[in-house]
Batch of 2 targets.
Target 1
Amino acid sequence: MKLAERMTGLGQETAFLVLVKARELEAQGRDIVHLEVGEPDFDTPAHIIEAACRALQSGYTHYNPSAGLPELRQAIAEDVSQSRGIKVNPKQVVVTPGAKPIMFFTLLALAGPGDEVIYPNPGFPIYESMINFVGAKAVPLRLAEEKDFCCDTDELRSKVTPRTKLIIINSPHNPCGSTLCREDLQAIAEMALKHDITVLADEIYGRISYDGDFASITQFPGMQERTIILDGFSKTYAMTGWRLGYGVMPETLAEQMAKLMSNSNSCTATFTQIAGVAALQGPQDEAYKMVAAFKERRNLIVKGLNSIPGIRCVMPKGAFYVFPNVKEVIKRGKFANCKALAEHLLTEAGVALMSGTAFGEYGEGYLRLSYANSIPNIQKALDRISEAVAKLG
Ligand code: PLP
């Protein structure tokens, strides 16, 4: 079967491939610590599960509108208005199965051959994959350790051309854990306004921000009209497997995205949307507890990594990832690259983690560890990495 040309540029999330390798080792009897996949290790709060069960029992088993159930769109509009300090109406909300489709739909709706899209690199691998898929030009914006993996706005300015259609930002950031400060957002907003560029603001980790200083680009004058907020329930409420996310955007674009939903999924599962209403309107203490636990783990993992000779780790401000510099370890162990080191740590030390290059070319020399795992497991992983690195001499 001959595949269509567009399939050649399609990438994927390699965390799932590392997970498969780790599971194979486990099947052989090995003990593996999982720091590869980016999902909370907590269970979905009980009241959300109960709401979904009640919904199923009371007949929420049919199709619903492509853009989402009116009650969930309303609840999201209220939540986003309150959390960002902006005014959102329910018609601006499109509910999707997970937040990922919002990336895909944004690119399908706005970018094509001849357009350029600037995206963070290292960054969530699906941005580059989807930009290529729709035939636009992927323009990487390097996030550098020297800048704490924040956006270098001068470099961003140098990447903007008359063909720039979209800038993708992600704060708090996967894989670096960095956040965009108000000054960065202001500079990006000015560029977007001056050059008539749309912004896709991936705010999926917005609630997992440790210093409480999360800011949204939609808070700057004129930006709500040219921004798509991507958010969802996966990370905040430990609901990755439920597949429930959403986008907030200008109403005219929301109508187009609802059409894309109608053409692809028809709608998002109805009972999960009822659970989404319960998540947003019910008690938030479980969500806060998760963030407090992630913060404690972050402090442990950063301290532990920085105490290993040859590893240097920036303190992340949000999400649940660290992105340590391992260039010295790669050199010492004569590894070809960070991917080879990541494989060594999986097979020799039993720690599943990601290479920096799984998130783009500028991730060379780094690893990504997800600390969405228990304190004893994180400590075990740190001990194993430390021992494996010491053996390299
Ligand atoms: N955006 C970023 C930066 C992510 O890390 C992820 C998931 O890992 C997503 C979006 C997708 O979220 P969902 O699982 O809701 O599709």
Target 2
Amino acid sequence: MNAPTPTAGSTLTVVPSGRLLGAEIRGVDLRSLAGADFASIQRAWNEHSVLLFRGQQLTDDDLIAFSRRFGELDWAPIQETGRRFVEGHPEIYVVSNVIVNGQPIGSLGAGEATWHTDMSYLEAPPKASMLYALEVPPSGGATYFCGMYEAYDALPDALKRRIEGRMLKHDGTYNSGGFVRQGVTAVDDPMTSPGVYHPLVCTHPETRRRVLYLGRRRNAYVQGLTLAESEALLDDLWPLATRDEFTWHNEWKVGDVVLWDNRCTMHRRDPFDPNSRRVMHRTQIKGETRPTA
Ligand code: OGA
Ligand code: MN
């Protein structure tokens, strides 16, 4: 695909990361974005799957307004504390280790968040998530993204044949920080744990490219196989799918916004010093369709 043609008066540039996915969009203020620039951003997003915008200064309303340009927003899932969302902004999910009056203000703590797709235990998972950095630790806490088009394309043919037509259960028990979701009883048997089945190989509704759709490893189960066969297949797939060459990562600076396509990427987070502060606000854009083969 060609780089978007610059529009008269636009300062927008797309700077690919040099990895297989990821690009930085420079020269835009997300609070006042011209329609032509938004169209360029959408094209770049389809091409690079994950976009980084640095140096933004957004209120929650600004973050919500920019996110809405991509589609209707989900309400944030219930936090680990049982609290639903930021007062007055039900669309904002707080990802933070900060504790105020003995209560975490957000989710995921300071530990590692393992590879996952956001909320793929829903019938129609969010199509995108956007994370905005308000406070970042001096080191650690980087977020990694893995390109699942590339992961699928690179699979050996024999493995492609083993997964063709198969459905995978996406666990609804644990979030990516390993915490049990609100209102759910912990179940550690992949055969019986709550979740939703999606095709293991999906077609992206916009790019029409094929994508390996793994969701998360814990409690995953391939329908129609014995548990041992399912575990063996998933254990073959995961290391191949998350090879370093398919990844790009962001070392956060305050003011960074990262937008990822939740249909064709997974992400994970490095742990960081629990005594430092990390505060991120996230929005999610509703999925318009169920993932389909
Ligand atoms: C998320 C998430 C990782 C991070 O917000 O969905 O996985 O780096 N966050 O905070
Ligand atoms: Mn996530």
